[in-house]
Amino acid sequence: MGDTKRKRGRKPKNPTPSQPLQSPPSSPLDDVFSLSNIEIIPSTSSAVEITTTASRPRGRPKKLPKLPDNPDPLPPPPILSPCRHVSNGTAIGLGGGSGGGELAVDPIGARVVPAMDAVVKVFCVHTEPNFSLPWQRKRQYSSSSSGFVISRRRVLTNAHSVEHYTQVKVKKRGSDTKYLATVLSIGTECDIAMLTVNDDEFWEGVSPVEFGELPALQDAVTVVGYPIGGDTISVTSGVVSRIEILSYVHGSTELLGLQIDAAINSGNSGGPAFNDKGNCVGIAFQSLKHEDAENIGYVIPTPVIQHFIQDYEKNEAYTGFPILGIEWQKMENPDLRKAMGMKPEQKGVRIRRVDPTAPESGVLKSSDIVLSFDGVDIANDGTVPFRHGERIGFSYLVSQKYAGDSSAIKVLRSSAILNFNIKLTSHRRLVPAHNKGRPPSYYIIAGFVFTTVSVPYLRSEYGKDYEYEAPVKLLDKLLHSMPQSPDEQLVVVSQVLVSDINIGYEDIVNTQVLALNGKPVKNLRRLAEMVENCDDEFLKFDLEYEQIVVLRTKTAKAATPDILATHCIPSAMSVDLKA
């Protein structure tokens, strides 16, 4: 009886050893917090704490509500990245902005899927020149990137994806065949390249991508491509966080660009960025890697893309983006504006220097105040109205033009307003930022290797930190010098191949050549011609830092073939100098 009454009474608070403590039944939420997701789940794990650490109330435990077979959409899990990955053609939605929590194709994915079939994978074999040994090329290497099909049987990708190409192939999504591609044009400044495929089979069932308008801030963008981490197509999503003039690293230029917070990794280069309507609004091309920055990627916007395409269609070649050949100074200081004769209502920028090789050098002068460009007033900080509530550097107006176009410029000179019509051309630097795919030029005499300075040459000699490691004289020429004539080059003694004839000169490295026998050296071709045609007894080279090199002319020319044979150099000069 006593035992029966105990069983009908209140349950003991502490379980007996014969009654092990039962864990609460598992729920579908437990799968979200598995070990595989630890790294992408933030510290807000309150749901776990409630089910495992809350004290049990007295009395019979409450039953957990039974979940229906098709539960209502749960709140999106706190995953740090908003990426959507695509595998075997099925887009996995993460909820959030799509308004639905089903794991089927979400509305955004449904709009993007048709255009994704136009995204291709680009395979390239590169053979880079050896700028330190200009008669050689480096060992070839392979790379993969992304691209997409546009109208007229063409494919767009990044210029750096096919730089120094030997062979280019493309592969469609879901295909196992790689098709040989032909490079039609490479725009180094804007980092865009255009390809085509001659095989008709490649174009079967492929619809070209349609371009959209320039997006606004906070507009959603979806970057599609073939980045590292897998072989299939991948999709990352984000929003437009900034629109401004950006520095294009590959071309060393400044053009309009979009900053987005979607992840852009190696292999994404050349892939399209779609808006929520499935139209292409840009090309992924670079990202910011810094310990203080996360998920900062950059996209080439449609105005730059259309400029490249129309330039090719108009000229059957890429002619580049024109610039205004001036260096200017802001006029934000009121005393400076007053000293320059500006009225309170006038705004503009002061010209510091004019490129002597530019067409505008004939009309513009130093200390002129540029008031407007093509009728658009320029502010004292060098910006112009862009869109509602936005301003942008006035170089954007120049970049919208094509080489050979004319523009109206209003300037203030000695308190008088002058109007000029200037023909725009592409910019030429004394130290070029790239060689446009051409091998470097060189000339060798008596073991002295002469070549021209360029950014690829400095990178080859001093590494990626050449801006800190290169000689100050060369860096000053790179940053501040302007060519005085269209054919001027910066010629240096790259190195001295040791021989009996050049004893004592072995330590000369990367030193500029100023003159030969008293005549200035304007470019490498002129130097080679002067040496080859020299009848003087001695060759006297005037170098930077007041250094001179003197060689007996006949002996130097006679010793050169043996030096070339010793170092397995095929010729004393590059092919372009022989022409």
From TrEMBL:
Keywords: Hydrolase, Protease, Serine protease. SUPFAM superfamilies: PDZ domain-like, Trypsin-like serine proteases. One of its GO terms (molecular function) is DNA binding. Residues 431-576 form the Protease Do-like PDZ domain. Residues 1-13 have a biased composition (Basic residues). Residues 44-55 have a biased composition (Polar residues). Pfam families: PDZ_3, Trypsin_2. Residues 14-27, 68-78 have a biased composition (Pro residues). Residues 1-32, 44-78 are annotated as: Disordered. Coiled coil: none annotated. The keyword DNA damage does not apply. InterPro entries: AT_hook_DNA-bd_motif, DEGP_PDZ, DEGP_PDZ_sf, PDZ_sf, Peptidase_S1_PA, Peptidase_S1_PA_chymotrypsin, Peptidase_S1C. GO terms for biological process: proteolysis. Belongs to the peptidase S1C family. This is Protease Do-like PDZ domain-containing protein. It comes from Gossypium tomentosum. The lineage of its organism: Eukaryota, Viridiplantae, Streptophyta, Embryophyta, Tracheophyta.
